[in-house]
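re: ur question from yesterday

yeah so i grabbed the chain u mentioned. its 185 aa long if i counted rite. heres the sequnce exactly as i have it in my notes:
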Amino acid sequence: MRRIALIILVLITLFSCEVFDLRDSQLPTVEAEWNDFATNLELALQNLKYAYEDSRNAINYSRIFYPDFRFYFAPQDITDFSTDAYWLSTHEQDMLLNLHTRYSKINVSLEPLSTADEISASEAKLYRSYQLIAKAADSQEQDIIVHGNLELHYRKQYGYWYIYRWYDYRLPDGHTWGRLKHENS
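ran it thru and got these structure tokens back, copy pasting raw so excuse formatting
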């Protein structure tokens, strides 16, 4: 009799806590945009933007760089803010993780400069003006806008384009991408 009473008590408990009720399904999350196969320069350039604009792509960021990648800071930033002359892809990865911690929404705009891009079968140089707007995640932080010019050198390896060198150039009134990187390293 005790066993039957215990079973009835367990069944009442299970049915009363709505374990067997139907639930609404969760809406699927939209995947982060990413070009797994950057077989042309446009896809490779999009991946640079995607890494900054969606924090879920921070893990993919190191995949856009050639093995001996280097980022070169603007000469004025080296002098004025004591930045390094250059850094490697490992610095880039750490910086991007820090940046996504401090800023909740980042928007990157890359526009072609009047200087013509230089593109061959296995190497390319792209010249762009940039603007990066970052909204602070914390009310203690300030939103930031950086702008300047950049020069991206790409190399093609096994059919995919990778950034080999990245040169940052400061405009007279600009807060550069390099300075933003330095401040978030």
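noticed a couple things. The two ends are 69 Å apart (CA to CA). also The chain has one domain: 36-183.
anyway ttyl
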